[in-house]
Amino acid sequence: MREQLGETQIVFAKRFGLSRDDIANYERGRCDIPTRVLAELDRLGI
Predict the structure, then answer these.
(1) C-alpha dist (Å) from residue 21 to 9, 14, 32, 38
(2) Quick check: is 13 in a domain?
(3) Domain range holding 14?
(4) Residue 41 and residue 44: Cα distance in Å, rounded?
(5) Are 31 and 25 in contact (CB under 8 A)?
(6) How far apart are alpha carbons 32 and 17 in whole angstroms?
(7) Per-residue pLDDT tens for 14-24?
């Protein structure tokens, strides 16, 4: 199981077109969040 995303990260992930299910699957290790989204979250310091 991966680290859970915080609410701020979830809000931004949704802006990038990810659903709550996508986020839940990521946290369970079943899928990956696209690198471009992770890079943008990192760039924003989130």
Answers:
(1) 14, 11, 12, 17
(2) yes
(3) 7-43
(4) 5
(5) yes
(6) 14
(7) 888 888 888 88
Amino acid at 32: D
Q: Is residue 36, in this structure, part of any structural domain at all?
A: yes
pTM of the model: 0.52
Cα 46 to Cα 31: distance, rounded to the nearest angstrom? 20
Fill in the DSSP letter of residue 33.
-
Q: Is residue 1 part of a domain?
A: no
Cβ pair 13, 23 in contact under 8 A: yes
In a domain, 37, yes or no: yes
Residue located via tokens 């979830």: 10
